[in-house]
Every structure is written in C-alpha cells, then in structure tokens.
Design a protein that fits this description.
Length: 65
C-alpha cells in the first residue's frame, strides 16, 4: 500500500499526514502524543518522517490481520 505523497518527501507536515491518513488534526496529534507516530520539532514546526508514517501504516495493517 502506498500513500498519495511524493517519494521525495523526507519529513511531512501535520497537514500532509492528515491528508495521507484522512484524519483530523486532533487525531494526528493524538497519535503523536501517544507515541504511535514518531515525530520531531524544529523550532515550533512539527514534522513526521516519511518512514515513520509508512511504519505506522504497516503496523496498523499487521494489527488487523
């Protein structure tokens, strides 16, 4: 399964993660707070590594099978 994101993205913004997962801003930050989705900050900007998003999706697929 692939996301709708270009492969050139190394670090995604929260709105990009929201669009990829089709989730609300609150839910994305909830995933980050609960450590289900890894992220980092640069100043006040929150970024999610593209690999962290792929791992999260793979973990979700593994939980459902």
């Amino acid at each position: 399964m692939t996301t709708a994101l270009p492969p050139s993205h190394e670090a995604l913004t929260v709105p990009e993660v929201m669009a990829a997962l089709r989730l609300s801003r609150f839910k994305v930050y909830d995933l980050i707070r609960s450590k289900q989705l890894q992220s980092f900050t640069i100043g006040r900007a929150r970024r999610v590594p593209a690999d962290a998003l792929r791992i999260y999706i793979e973990n979700q697929l593994g939980d459902n099978n």
